Structures are given as C-alpha cells and as structure tokens.
Amino acid sequence: MLKFGIQNGLNVARLGLTEDQILTACSLADKTGYHSIWYMDHSNVPQWSNAIVNDPWVMLAGIAAVTNNVELGTCVTDALRRHPSNIALASITLDRLSKGRGTLGIGAGEAQNLKEFNIPFDKPVSKFEEQLQVIKHLYDSDPDNRKTWEGKYYQLTEACLQAKSVRQPHVPIYMASGGPRTLKMTGKYGDGWLPIGYTPELFEDHKNQIVDSMNENGRTEEEKQDFQMALDIDVYFSDDAETSWAKMKEAIKVSLFKPEVLRVHGLKDIEGFDFKKYFTEYSMSNQDWIVKMREAATTIPDKIARSSVGVGTPDDVIEVFEKFLKAGVNHYVIRFWGSNYFGSIDQFANKVIPYFKDQDK
C-alpha cells in the first residue's frame, strides 16, 4: 500500500508554530487520510531566531493523544546524543501510548546538533551500527531475559527494559542513510529507509543497494515485502510555480549537494570543497561553511534540483511524485513549505492522495 505522511521539521520550526497549532495540524492530517506523522530531532535552528524547536519524543506523545490512525515516528533521532537504552525505551513507550502506532526513525547524526554542545562527533557510522545492535537486544529484553553486551562504544551488564511494544516483534526501525556503508546497514537492520534530499535517479540507485544488502543478509520474503522505502520530500503549493521555484531553489540545491548526487548525475566534484570536513565540522552557527556550501551547490543544474521537490499546483506535485513512485518510493513523508501549513495539508489530502488511490484500483 502506498502511504503518505507529514513531517513536522524545519518547515514547521521556521513558521514558529506553537505546540497547540502543531497538534491541530496533526489532528487534521489524521482525519484527512494520511498514514503517518513524523517529528524532527534537532537541538536548535539558530539561523531562524523565531523558530520553536521541541523534543520529538515529548511532542509525539502529545500527538498520540490527539490522533487515532496515523503511525508516529522521529524523522530522525540521531544516535550520538542519546544512549541506546533511552532510545529503545522512548520508542516502546510511544508505541504503547499510541496503541501500536510507534516508529523509530534513526540516523548517525550530524555535527550541527552536536558541536555547540561539545558532544563528540567521531566514528558516527560505527557508533550508529553498534547502537542499532544494542537497541534490538534491548527490545528483546525483560527481567527474565537480561542482556549483556561488550561493545566498543556501549556496554550492558545484565540489563533489561520492563515494557514491551505493542507492535511485534518490535517497533519498526526506519533508517536515514545515504552512503555505501549505511545503505548496507539499512538492508541488514532496518524495517524502512527514510532519506532526504534525493532525485528519483539517486533514490532508485540507493534503493537497489538496500535490496542487494537485504538479499546478502538473508532477509525473508515477508521482510522484504513489508520494507518501507520512504522519502522525506518537500512540497510547496503555489499558483505561480516559477516564482516559487526561484525563491526556494538555492535551499533545495544545498540540501541536494552531496557526493552521491554528483555521482549518479555525472556532475563534477567542486574543486576545493571537502565533503568530509563539511559533514563533520558544519554547525548552524558556522557562517563560513554555510557560505561555502551555498556557493558549491549552485553548480547543480536547475532541472536536476527541481526533480527532487514538488512545487506548484497539485498536478505539478503529482508529476514529481509519479517519478519517485517509479523509482521505488512506497511511503512519502512530506514537508509542506509556505505560510499556509493547514491549507497545504488539506489540499494535498483532497487533490493528491485521491489521485494515487485511484491509480491503485
């Protein structure tokens, strides 16, 4: 089944919506046919001084109380700021509060959430993998089945949790991944994939890498069938698509500018731009890196950048979504941009979701 969800991320933070407004928007999405609601996990976004940035797990608990149907998850929690026992228990608690609608969205993290708080950003992928292993161990624990773990980064000694998720065998794990190593990990450990900043061509390329990993790791046919190939995608409804695109294209190109996009589209590397340093040193308050990124990202052709977002009328959005559908997406997680957040949720539910439902008949 094709699914549609909304993401309460940078789009909502930038608007400065209050908690009550966010809960109202989520209630609207629940009543109008969406399948999931997601909440970002950031410490701050200081480039927007009026933004409101809340804890995702607390907000999702509140959203659970005003919804009945949608799945609920983080988009995404980063593995380096919390101990795996905390993440495991938070996701189980959310699942129990929501009566079986909880989901864990998780990634390796990024320097922008860590640097100013003096949290080390070292060996993020290795820590991410070990954290996944520990979380799965703890999902399976109880007082009669205690877990000991002697890892490089985490240790458990006869540890257990004392709550079981409603969803079995455990809360579904959606992984944010985009490099060869983390894509392999997604095929090995994940129940879903939730990337951001993708073109249809890159999505299909990475989806195939995940499927290869699932086969290599002996995942069952049922696991492969149920696997969610999700995508965090931007949508901006507008009667004047060209004007709206001109306003947002710089930000879209920045979100797309990564080695894998350059590779898949045959674009040249930018001389002097060090991706590794960018991802390990960048923070929201570091203006030097922000300027470097914007300058480098301008080299992405408009046609490629525009293929990654839905801008314009519902028909324009449908055209983009159809290309991603062909690339393998089966769960869209939408960040609605623009000042009319409630109107966008409603318009998408009334114009776009029915179109794809009709295609399934």
From TrEMBL:
Question: A single Gene Ontology molecular function, please?
Answer: oxidoreductase activity, acting on paired donors, with incorporation or reduction of molecular oxygen
A Pfam family this chain is assigned to:
Bac_luciferase
**What CDD domains would the database entry show?**
Tetrahydromethanopterin_reductase (cd01097)
Q: Where is the Luciferase-like domain?
A: 22-331
Family matches, as Gene3D superfamilies: Luciferase-like domain
SUPFAM superfamilies, A to Z: Bacterial luciferase-like
Q: Which domain of life is it from?
A: Archaea
> By its UniProt entry, which InterPro entries does this protein fall under?
F420-G6PD/mer, Luciferase-like_dom, Luciferase-like_sf
Keywords in alphabetical order = Monooxygenase, Oxidoreductase
Record PANTHER family: 5,10-METHYLENETETRAHYDROMETHANOPTERIN REDUCTASE (PTHR43244:SF1), PTHR43244
Name of the protein this chain belongs to: Luciferase-like monooxygenase
Q: Which organism is it from?
A: Candidatus Nitrosopelagicus brevis
